[in-house]
Amino acid sequence: MKWLSNNCGHYRESLCLLASGILAGGEIADIENHLATCTDCRKYYDQLRNVVAPLAGLEKAFSHIEPNQAVQARWDADFQRAIHPVGPHSLRHIVSFLDWFRDMIWPCRRVWIGFAGVWLVIFVVNLSSMRGFDKLTAGSSLRVSTDIVQAFVKNEDSLAGELKPRPSAKPDA
Predict the structure, then answer these.
(1) 138: in domain
(2) 68: left (phi > 0), else alpha (psi -120 to 50), else beta?
(3) How many CB atoms lie within 10 A of CB 45?
(4) In a domain, 71, yes or no
(5) Are residues 94 and 157 in the same domain?
(6) 22-81: per-residue pLDDT in tens?
(7) Is 66 in a helix, a strand, or coil?
(8) Does a structural domain hold residue 70?
(9) Which contacts (CB < 8 Å, 24+ apart) does range 84-91 have?
(10) Are residues 97 and 152 in the same domain?
(11) How many domains does the chain divide into?
(12) Taking the complete model, does pTM exceed 0.90, yes or no?
C-alpha cells in the first residue's frame, strides 16, 4: 500500500534510463533534483548503477571479438532454414498445422473439448433419428410416392390449365 501512496513511482523508469546512460538531456536535471531529496530513490538508483556498470563494461571488453567465417556461415544457414524450411512439401504442412494447433487450439482446449462434446451429442441424436426414418420409408410408402409423381407428370397439362390466373370481371363505373 505504501507504493500506491508514494509519488516516486513515475521516476522509476527514468532512474533506469539514467543509470544506463540513455536518458534525454532535459529530464536529467529533474531526476537529479528528485534524487537529492528522496532517499528511497537514491538507494534504488545506487542499486541500479551497481548492476549496470559491469554490464556496460562488457560491451567495451568484448568489442574486438568477431565470429569467424565458419560461425557466420553456420548462422546464415540456420537463419535460411528457419525462413525457408527444407523438406517434403507435406511435412511443411504438418509442421504448420502443429504450429497452428499449438497457437490456436491448445490454449483453449477445454472450450474445444466442450464443442466436440456438443457436436458428438448432436451427431448421435441425428443418427438415432435417421434410423427411425429408415424404418418409416422402407416398404410400400416408397412405391406410393413414385405413383404420385407419375400421376402428376401424366396430368401436368390439365394441372397447368387449372393454375392459370382467370381474368377477373371489371366493375362497371
Answers:
(1) yes
(2) beta
(3) 22
(4) no
(5) yes
(6) 887 778 888 888 888 888 889 988 998 888 877 777 777 777 788 888 888 988 888 887
(7) coil
(8) no
(9) none
(10) yes
(11) 2
(12) no
How many whole angstroms separate alpha carbon 16 and alpha carbon 36? 16
User: Is residue 105 domain-shared with residue 45, that is, in the same domain?
Assistant: no
Q: Cα–Cα distance between 70 and 78 in angstroms, integer?
A: 12
**Tens-place pLDDT, residues 87-131:** 666 677 787 888 888 888 778 888 888 999 999 999 988 888 776
- Establish if 76 belongs to a structural domain: no
Q: How many helices (H) and strands (E) does the chain have?
A: 9, 0
**In which domain, by residue range, is 117 found?**
87-162
pLDDT of residue 78: 83
Which of these three, 61, 76, 109, is where a domain ends? 61
Q: Which three cell numbers stand for residue 64?
A: 574486438
pLDDT at residue number 121: 93
Cite the beta strand spans of 7-74 per DSSP E: none
- In the block, cell 390439365 appears at 158
Which has the closest alpha carbon to 44: 71, 13, 22?
Answer: 13
